[in-house]
Amino acid sequence: MTLGANIMNDFGNTLSRKRAELIKKYELDVESLPTKEEIDNQTRINALDKLKQQKQEAWSTWNLYPAHQKIQFDFSKWKPDMQEDSENARELGKKAYLLSKRMKNETLNVLFVGAPGTGKTSLALAIAKELDKHILFISTAELAALFDTDLRNSPDIKQKLRNVENAMIGIDVLIIDDLGTEGSMRFKNFGVTEKMQHLMYRVANGRFNFEKNKVARTTLITTNNTDEELNNMYDPKIISRLIPKKQEQRIAFNNMKDVRGMG
Ligand SMILES: Nc1ncnc2c1ncn2[C@@H]1O[C@H](COP(=O)(O)OP(=O)(O)OP(=O)(O)O)[C@@H](O)[C@H]1O
Ligand SMILES: [Mg+2]
In sequence order, which residues have a C-beta less than 8 Å from that of residue 190 and are 6 or more positions away? Predict the structure, then answer.
């Protein structure tokens, strides 16, 4: 036997001895110890989870929450009994949940339409969470506020707008919250309309696959406005790319009451 082989042999013996000592010392059940493959696999899963979390944190920089307050929701929090018409509220939750299951294999846009405080944003967040992908939340009112005439020429805001736009195009799941608010509320001198239109047009194009004639990445849109109102506010090209036409991808909060503040 060569010197190298001897050293390896000794090393192997020492390792086996140490292993036996540890098993005895800690009274380990050898059968239940993970194999090397299992440990490697778990290490790989942990590393991927960590990477995903870091990526989500990077995207999160560009979230625009209403009044800068992060909001979260998942299906376990949906309480149909908060509504007088609890049957309908249960159906709405079920429709959203079944869509989220479908969307694990299919890329779809979903529209949530109805009166204020009825749970549209909550169910949009619940679907996004269920998809387990990178998510960006954009409050249309907050986005419009970045076009404030006093602000929009500052280099910081210009850069922020570029970053938000890139994130809106590239993110797996985009929530556009309260589309239409910026058109119906009177934002003082923001002059948002044209600039917002252009931005939304670039975003809508960036998220659409023209070759396959279908959406490339999921967009969840909440609004208080009818299709007609949205079409009057926005160029129909934008609406055509973003708003789903199929009833199964439209969640209408009919007969639902405003339950904000009733938690
Ligand atoms: N069925 C429900 N179960 C539990 N919480 C609910 C339900 N419906 C609404 N809420 C809560 O009520 C509040 C308002 O809901 P949400 O923000 O989703 O309404 P919205 O339809 O998006 O309103 P708006 O049009 O004003 O943006 C939130 O705190 C939300 O979590
Ligand atoms: Mg909302």
Answer: 144, 145, 147, 148, 149, 182
Residue 246, domain CATH: 3.40.50.300
Question: Which amino acid, residue 173?
Answer: V
Say which ligand is closest to the CA of 263. Answer: 1
pTM of the predicted protein model: 0.83
Could you report how far apart the first and last alpha carbons of the chain are, in Å? Answer: 78
Task: Please give the residue range of the domain that contains residue 208.
Answer: 69-252
The closest alpha carbon to 118, from 252, 222, 259, belongs to: 259
Conformational region of residue 217, where left means phi above 0, alpha means psi within -120 to 50, and beta covers everything else: beta
In a domain, 34, yes or no: yes
Of the two residues 58 and 85, the one the predictor is more confident about is: 85
Name the 3-class secondary structure at 116: coil
Residue 183 DSSP SS3: helix
Q: Give CA angle at 46 (42, 47), nearest 5°.
A: 115
Is the CB–ligand 1 distance for residue 89 below 6 Å?
yes
Whether residue 57 lies inside any domain: the answer is no
Q: Is the CB of 113 under 6 A from ligand 1?
A: no
User: Is there a single domain that holds both residue 179 and residue 119?
Assistant: yes
In-domain check, residue 211: yes
- Is residue 73 in contact with ligand 1, taking CB distance under 6 Å? yes
Q: Ligand 1: distance of its center to the CA of 106 in Å?
A: 26
Q: Provide, rounded to the nearest whole percent, the portion of the chain with pLDDT above 90.
A: 64
Q: What is the total count of domains within the chain?
A: 2
Q: Is residue 237 part of a domain?
A: yes
Q: Which residues pair with 113 in a beta bridge?
A: 223, 252
CB 190 within 8 A of CB 144: yes
Mean pLDDT of 109-137: 97
Residue-wise pLDDT for 21-31, tens only, equals: 888 888 888 77
